[in-house]
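Follow-up to my earlier ticket, as requested here are the two runs.
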Amino acid sequence: MPLISYPRPEAGRWLVRRAFRRWPGRRGRWLDLSSGTLRQDSPGIDLPRVEDVRPGPELLYIPPVEPSQEEPRAELIRALGERGVALLVQCSPGDAAVLDVEGASVVFDLLDDLVRRSLEGFSSLPAGCTVAWPLVAGISDDPELWEEACARLAGAGVRCIQAVTPELKARDRQQLVAESGGADELFDSLFHRRPASERELAVVAARHGLASFFRPPSRAGSRHERNLELAEILALAGEIWLRLGRSEVCGQDFFRASHWAASTSIEVRAVALEGNLGVVGWARAEVSELILEWASTGCSKRLEEWLGEYGAETGASGA
């Protein structure tokens, strides 16, 4: 089963670099993390074979399946992990088991719970996990709902709540209205109002000690793994830089540098430490400084400061 390869990681798309072109999916509505859309499938194809996936640190997206396929999916995840494939595994609150597979990051999709306005399952999520919060007007963009949900998530030890504003088709909106009994207020919200911004949710999350962007585990192995880690940091920096309303040109430089880091054959860390970042002479000072900081320390204080600014109380507007 062929894969789709994405040319660069995107923070808003969970830094996924690979996804299956065909996937059995499930009949119930779910949030596709790699595309930001809602899906309802008619499962009828087999799960992919382990042999079809080459090992590597590029993050591979593993979507949900029908309950009858959970065990085969779990076996696939274990086998891929043993082959050294980095995974982003999507689950829902209440799933029977969450696999502890080396190289696998688990994201819990809260869509069904939010449509039902049921938060009970949030308190039993595993500590250290990440959740995806779909922002849908009239359903999941109420600040009071955010406060209660973030309190529950923080109490469970959840590390991160990342907002997603899904692209809704007319059919999606109509189904959501029908499930609510055809309420006029929800109809108006879904069809005529934009949901609250992702940054507004980030402000509430920060008050509860929750991060707002998924960060894969550090990969400090091969040259390619180190370069990919830098690419993800640069992609997140570019996303935050633009969401803070700063220079579009510089933001695009961060994305360009991210693509370069992920595809270059040179050891970026060594080049930076040797003072030879002239090979990316097109990069602005902010980009070169972040690369050098990462090369020297393994992280970026600048990026953490920007993330803090994004979740600050005074910045509750914008994307």
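Run two:
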Amino acid sequence: MIRRRDFITLLGGAAAWPVAARAQQQERMRRIGVLINLAADDREGRIRLAAFQENLHQLGWIEGRNARLDIRWGAGDAERIRTFATELVALSPDVIVCSGSTTLRTLQAATRSLPIVFVTVTDPVGAGFVASLRQPGANITGFTQFEYGISGKWLELLKQVAPAVTRVAVLRNPAQASGIGQLGAISSAAASFGMDLKPVDIRDIGEIERALTSLAHLPNAGLIVTSSALAAVHREFIITFAAQHRLPAVYYRRFFVTAGGLISYGPDTTDEFRRAADYVDRILKGEKAADLPVQAPTKYELAINLKTAKALGLDVPPSMLARADEVIE
């Protein structure tokens, strides 16, 4: 015979079972793969990862409690990226976050089922990653880097800050489809600015050095560095070389300017990594990558390094300074 007090206690415990079960289910560990195309000791890469982790935490995903992050760094090396992509897919995570077109293409070849959220990818439709921006389809969605049209803006900025420049080398990675689109936009704007363009394909640090050395001997020369993981990984070399040979250069990302580059214009990549956590949250809660529209950047930044401009003997127009989001003095 069960006493009345014991029965009430038992009944109360039974009533709590569904709550406890739900809590336990909510707290089950979810696995998130992360493959970033920069090096592990790259300060910019760490800033991007921190933004992603911070927002993930704010959304309720706590590392060690209900989320586990498996983080890999590709360092702009195709073989490393391939190895880590295979490794992450083998772990069967609930979702994978990646940066860059080369990284995404490698992951796409490795899995057609695991959800993938990409960041800093240009023209994902043209590259064949998604069916459309509104309805990506398959297992991939994410955040685009920029429209190709922005590439023409780099040439305009170079002409404004260095009016004497008439020859421009455009560094691009031919292994990336986006390299063609960026060059096309720059070429379309070249005639109106009276610029002679020289496309320079870069595949490794040696090729970058040879290309810049040949450029340094030309009069009235300038440089545009288009978006690529290779340029990002070797940015210190590019910036130092440009400074030593007094080459005015425009870059696609702010972190080139904070490291000593002259001027940059491009989206706020840190913000995109932060927004990627929102999509990871939605996927972990049951939504499908195929149904989440690919989003464009919402923040663009113009950064100018006045110290570098002074060293190059350039006077930055007041109108350009007034438009700048960041001025380094």
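The only thing I checked on run two: The first strand starts at residue 30 and ends at 36. Let me know what else you need.
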